[in-house]
């Protein structure tokens, strides 16, 4: 997109893309670890929050506990699984308590980011979404915190006959404010965390909800409470200590669970199924809630108080495991031949991968295709200077990695200052040049649909730890702080680098 820029560019040391959980955390860490750096946060939406602002569907909540999804520096004092409203309140407190609002520009959609080695600068062209006015910024360093899916639209497959259907088709990501489900027959397509959240939150209003899934997903039902946190509060322990203690205990438990899922998958599978069976019985569990894959090949959502299964048990909802043949005027014809009649069809079928904000990237006049680069620890990319990307964990809370990457960015910025370097990029070392290159993620290990659909857009990985995106928080929490910033993988340019070469 061409943008006509009339105003003079504003310059900042660091430009953060996105005011979601990663961007707000990054802004906080900059104020604490790089207090001399000027920075701005550009956000395309009308407010902060990212996912938690975008999604408006009934019951929207986290599928990770807030002791680990929350920031390490800000105690969480609510229930482990939190609503979007509670998460936005928490993030708002971080902004207010640390005077971050003055650094954030809302309704600024970035359309182009161009790096110039001659100037050692990024030039960022944006458009005000409220006025359509162009804005230009320059920055020494670009910090990509925009998330990993396209906020403007969700993913809905193209099924035969969709135009024949006489009812309304809705995707949760663009939930309409005028949608009234009272007394309606609803078919909810999907089997992940979104479907599990929606069903119990609409079941009371609907005449009936049918959850239509192609294949089952693993869930963990349980009380939306943390016994350890409750005990510590009874003992009048300070909330800062409670947050840290509970966080460490949860991370220990999650590490053990993840390892067991790989080492003894059948035992873990039976434990997960037993939790569901206790609520809906063994017959329904066997028919509709027994996945064909081993645990952790896709995310496992926590179902607070088993509300999904309580709705099924109470008869307010039913589950159908089948495939869609086509849409018809009155509903969905299944491959089994059955017709599911519906006044409203909700497609909780996932989202579209967003590769670095769908921004037009240019490096020294040449268009950048990230699929042609190799990732450095899932944060930097060969041939792309002065930029770090935050991409969180699949099997642990996103924010755990956002905090670790923030530490890395701040350490890298301070190291560049110490060297007097104006530019840093990553490059394959001599010992890496014959390294086999593979897709970004091993889909035999983790294979959600959005990743499979978008893998060709993502950078490559190598077979060495430095050139892969680890999904192991418990390893990275020790490894990332010890990364040698003078390793040959880092290429610095600037006064100190020139002096060193001389």
Q: Which keywords apply here?
A:
globular, 14 helices, nine-stranded mixed beta sheet, FAD/NAD(P)-binding domain, alpha/beta, disordered N terminus, five-stranded parallel beta sheet
Layout of strands and helices, then pairs:
Elements: E1 10-17, H1 21-33, E2 39-42, H2 51-54, H3 66-69, H4 84-97, E3 104-105, E4 108-116, E5 121-128, E6 134-144, E7 149-154, E8 168-170, E9 185-189, H5 193-202, E10 208-213, E11 219-222, H6 227-234, H7 239-263, H8 265-280, H9 282-288, E12 301-304, H10 307-313, E13 317-321, E14 324-328, E15 331-334, E16 339-341, E17 344-347, E18 351-353, E19 360-363, E20 366-367, E21 375-376, E22 380-381, E23 387-389, H11 398-419, E24 421-426, H12 449-454, H13 473-479, E25 490-494, H14 495-501
Parallel strand pairs: 1-2, 1-6, 2-3, 4-19, 6-23, 8-17, 9-10, 9-17, 10-13, 11-12
Antiparallel strand pairs: 4-5, 5-6, 7-18, 14-15, 15-16, 19-20, 21-22, 24-25
Helix pairs in contact: 1-11, 5-10, 6-7, 7-8, 8-9
CATH architecture of the largest domain: 3-Layer(bba) Sandwich
The number of distinct helices, counting runs of at least 4 residues, comes to 14
Helix content: 25-40%
Count of spatially separate domains? 2
If you compute it from the alpha carbons, what radius of gyration comes out, rounded to the nearest whole angstrom?
24 Å
Instruction: Assign the CATH superfamily of the largest domain.
Output: FAD/NAD(P)-binding domain
What's the total count of β strands?
25
Strand-pairing-aware structural class: alpha/beta
**Mean pLDDT value:** 92
Quote the CATH topology of the largest domain: FAD/NAD(P)-binding domain
């Amino acid at each position: 997109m061409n943008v006509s820029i009339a105003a003079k560019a504003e310059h900042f040391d660091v430009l953060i893309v996105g005011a979601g959980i990663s961007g707000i955390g990054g802004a906080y860490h900059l104020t604490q670890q790089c207090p001399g750096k000027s920075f701005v946060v550009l956000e395309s939406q009308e407010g902060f929050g990212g996912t938690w602002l975008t999604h408006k569907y009934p019951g929207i909540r986290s599928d990770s506990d807030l002791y680990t999804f929350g920031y390490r520096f800000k105690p969480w004092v609510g229930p482990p699984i939190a609503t979007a409203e509670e998460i936005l309140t928490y993030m708002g407190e971080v902004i207010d308590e640390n005077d971050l609002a003055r650094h954030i520009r809302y309704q600024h959609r970035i359309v182009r980011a161009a790096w110039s080695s001659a100037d050692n600068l990024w030039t960022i062209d944006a458009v005000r979404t409220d006025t359509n006015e162009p804005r230009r910024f320059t920055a020494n360093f670009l910090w990509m915190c925009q998330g990993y899916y396209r906020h403007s639209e969700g993913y809905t497959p193209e099924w035969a006959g969709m135009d024949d259907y006489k009812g309304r088709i809705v995707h949760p990501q663009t939930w309409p404010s005028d949608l009234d489900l009272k007394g309606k027959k609803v078919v909810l397509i999907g089997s992940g965390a979104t479907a599990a959240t929606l069903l119990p939150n609409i079941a009371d209003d609907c005449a009936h909800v049918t959850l239509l899934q192609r294949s089952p997903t693993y869930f963990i039902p349980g009380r939306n409470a943390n016994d350890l946190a409750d005990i510590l509060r009874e003992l009048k322990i300070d909330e800062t200590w409670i947050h840290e203690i509970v966080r460490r205990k949860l991370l220990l438990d999650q590490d053990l669970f993840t390892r067991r899922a790989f080492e003894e998958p059948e035992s873990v599978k039976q434990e997960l199924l037993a939790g569901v069976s206790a609520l809906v019985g063994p017959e329904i569990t066997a028919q509709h809630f027994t996945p064909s894959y081993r645990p952790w090949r896709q995310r496992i959502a926590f179902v607070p108080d088993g509300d999904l299964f309580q709705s099924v048990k109470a008869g307010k909802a039913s589950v159908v495991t089948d495939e869609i043949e086509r849409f018809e005027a009155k509903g969905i014809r299944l491959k089994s031949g059955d017709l599911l009649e519906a006044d409203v069809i909700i497609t909780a079928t996932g989202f579209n991968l967003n590769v670095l904000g769908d921004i037009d990237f240019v490096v020294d006049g040449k268009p950048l295709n990230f699929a042609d680069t190799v990732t450095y620890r899932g944060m930097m990319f060969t041939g792309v200077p002065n930029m770090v990307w935050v991409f969180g964990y699949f099997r642990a809370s996103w924010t755990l990695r956002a905090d670790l990457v923030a530490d890395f960015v701040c350490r890298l910025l301070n190291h560049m200052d110490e060297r007097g370097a104006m530019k840093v990029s990553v490059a394959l070392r001599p010992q890496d040049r014959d390294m086999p290159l593979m897709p970004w993620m091993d889909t035999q290990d983790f294979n959600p649909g959005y990743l499979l659909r978008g893998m060709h857009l993502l950078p490559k990985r190598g077979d060495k730890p430095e050139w892969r995106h680890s999904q192991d928080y418990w390893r990275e929490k020790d490894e990332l702080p010890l990364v040698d910033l003078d390793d040959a993988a880092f290429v610095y340019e600037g006064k100190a680098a020139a002096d060193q070469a001389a």
